[in-house]
Amino acid sequence: MNSPHIFSQSIINAKETTQRGNLHFQQSKGKWSFDIYAVWNKRINRLTIKARNVDSVKHFPNCKLFRDPFLTLVSYTKYGRTEAYTFKGKKSIFSETILKSKTTVPLMETKRPFIELRDFFVIFSGTIRSKDHKSLSNIFVLIDFLLDEMDQVIANNSTNH
User: Fold this and answer.
1) Would you tell me the crossing angle of helices 6-17 and 133-160 to the nearest 10 degrees?
2) Strand order in the sheet with 85-89
3) For 122-147, how does the pLDDT look when each residue is reduced to its tens digit (9 = 90+)?
4) φ and ψ at 129, to 5 degrees?
5) Predicted TM-score (pTM) of this structure
6) 144/149 Cα distance (integer angstroms)
7) Burial class of residue 60 (count of CB atoms within 10 Å of its CB; 0-12, 13-18, 19+)
């Protein structure tokens, strides 16, 4: 079995001591600084990750991708099992990167998910089952991949200007 992501291990260790609680910590990895907030009880984990590229002074245009409950209900009744998402905010090369990324769909499969660009931050929030340590670790791996793609866009954008 693969070892869990280093950030998820901190949450797993904290959950072993109490059935319900919360944990807030900050970590750095490569060019990114992470502000991680986890809240859990016996059944669910709510995870919010705020990441900021410390090398970049690039201000992200504000936008948000989230699951739309009404559109999901309509699409479910009309077409079967499908999810519907809404995008609000300014379009940019950064929002296009999120929309085109292969990591976005698995991240959006969590409960009440959203991915947001706000000011200098890339923010993800979602809920998973409390005992699903593999999904918890996978969220951090997927965030790493998404941030690598954002790094490429930042690098390409800075060389073009």
Assistant:
1) 150
2) 21-29, 32-40, 44-53, 121-129, 111-119, 60-67, 85-89
3) 999 999 998 889 999 999 999 999 99
4) -65, 145
5) 0.86
6) 9
7) buried
Could you tell me if 78 and 47 are in contact, meaning their C-beta atoms sit under 8 angstroms apart? no
Amino acid in position 22: N
Angle at 82 between CA 48 and CA 147, to 5 degrees: 35
- Give yes or no for a contact between 15 and 43, defined as CB atoms under 8 angstroms apart: no
Q: What are the strands, taking DSSP E only, across 7-120?
A: 21-29, 32-40, 44-53, 60-67, 85-89, 111-119
67-105: pLDDT as tens digits: 776 655 566 566 665 666 788 999 999 999 999 999 999
Question: Residue 82 carries which side chain, given as an amino acid letter?
Answer: T
CA angle 127, 128, 133 (to 5 degrees): 135
Whether the CB-CB separation of 49 and 146 falls below 8 Å is answered with no
